[in-house]
Task: inverse folding
């Protein structure tokens, strides 16, 4: 990070970051982005990552311009996310999912439990418009929008009257996840979880691979 | 039933007039605030005091204001639970995590009466420092019409008097004449400490 800040370019593992001049000017000047406003180093890092790693979403947004941080220029597809982890950290990445179609995981709870029991980190690629509702529209986009780190998942006992007759008693789970804001515990039904999950990625450090 | 050809044009025109009228319906948020000021201010004040005791936020998740979601914020974890209004589990949850149920229940009742869909304390940032405001999202049913995109009234209560330009838009500071955005929206003055905007999302 110091090399990136002082020299304008740096290496991280096998990756050589050489951000464009537009990135040099923009890093540290982004405003009204929440906590990023007072974290210029985070701005520099996020912009350098978005400038280096490209995906098909960059087809119409190849270069950074003012305001590009709010467009597909900065978007992260599922493939790009997995590639970033593998290339930057050298982690072994096991991914199930895609940008458009939900993965077929018959026992999602068991799958997530297994991933959490193994060494490493489990990421979920989710449609955040359901998880973090921002309006009451009946029709929402059916695309994934966010990556969250899954910390824990466990079944809970909820009275049937509390969740409605359409949800089986053993269908409710507590999930604990981390996003940029902090760790959150939330009660959801497995049906809801299946609806919002578009990808499950498990990353394990190279030394912990069997 | 077929509409006779000479009447098709007037019928179509009437239909589009109704659609246009309903999509342009607006409620004057300033008048709304002044009319309901005692209630809105008491909601803000009660929330501010209760939040200072233990942080939380309240959200109504459905159109009928029957389901309430509550975020209980601790140092290590934010707990999010959703209940029917009046459900005993809400009271039990609040007691379990050390919250005073009285102001929370009072807030839920008043928010429901005022069609307030979300209340929270938000951070916003100056050049190097963090400030906070109370954010109240209103969704009056009279405003809930088809073809209306921006349907939420947002009120923000600041701790300090704010600066505004000649058009009443919220500025970043006295010397920095930039228009401040909160949640990507420009806010306008109601009084020195209270601003409003109309948005397509409640947070």
Result:
């Amino acid at each position: 990070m110091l090399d990136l800040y002082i020299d304008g370019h740096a290496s991280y593992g096998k990756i050589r970051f050489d951000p464009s001049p537009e990135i040099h000017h923009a890093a540290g000047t982004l405003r009204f982005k929440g906590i990023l406003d007072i974290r210029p180093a985070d701005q520099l890092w996020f912009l350098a990552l978005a400038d280096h790693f490209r995906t098909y979403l960059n087809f119409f947004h190849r270069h950074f311009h003012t305001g590009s941080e709010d467009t597909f220029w900065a978007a992260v597809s599922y493939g790009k996310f997995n590639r970033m982890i593998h290339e930057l950290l050298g982690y072994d990445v096991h991914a199930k999912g895609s940008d458009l179609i939900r993965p077929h995981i018959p026992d999602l709870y068991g799958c997530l439990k297994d991933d959490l029991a193994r060494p490493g980190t489990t990421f979920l690629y989710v449609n955040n418009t359901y998880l973090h509702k921002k309006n009451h529209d009946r029709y929402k986009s059916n695309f994934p929008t966010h990556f969250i780190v899954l910390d824990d998942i466990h079944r809970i006992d909820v009275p049937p009257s509390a969740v409605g007759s359409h949800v089986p008693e053993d269908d409710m789970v507590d999930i604990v996840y981390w996003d940029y804001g902090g760790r959150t515990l939330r009660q959801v039904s497995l049906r809801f979880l299946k609806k919002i999950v578009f990808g499950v990625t498990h990353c394990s450090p190279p030394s912990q691979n069997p | 039933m077929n509409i006779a050809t000479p009447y098709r044009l007037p019928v179509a025109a009437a239909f589009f007039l109704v659609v246009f009228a309903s999509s342009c319906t607006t409620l004057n948020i300033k008048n709304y605030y002044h009319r309901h000021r005692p209630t809105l201010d008491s909601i803000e004040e009660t929330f501010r005091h209760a939040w200072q005791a233990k942080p939380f936020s309240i959200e109504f998740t459905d159109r009928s204001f029957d389901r309430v979601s509550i975020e209980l914020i601790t140092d290590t974890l934010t707990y999010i639970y959703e209940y029917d209004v009046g459900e005993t589990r809400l009271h039990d949850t609040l007691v379990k995590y050390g919250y005073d149920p009285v102001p929370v229940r009072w807030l839920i009742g008043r928010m429901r009466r005022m069609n307030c869909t979300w209340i929270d304390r938000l951070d916003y940032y100056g050049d190097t420092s963090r400030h906070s405001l109370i954010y109240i999202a209103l969704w009056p049913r009279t405003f809930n019409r088809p073809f209306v995109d921006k349907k939420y009234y947002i009120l923000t209560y600041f701790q300090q008097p704010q600066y505004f330009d000649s058009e009443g838009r919220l500025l970043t500071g006295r010397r920095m004449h930039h228009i401040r955005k909160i949640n990507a929206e420009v806010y306008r003055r109601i009084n020195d400490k209270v601003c409003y905007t109309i948005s397509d999302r409640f947070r």
Observations:
- Chain B is about 30% helix and 30% strand.
- The first helix of chain B runs from residue 5 to 23.
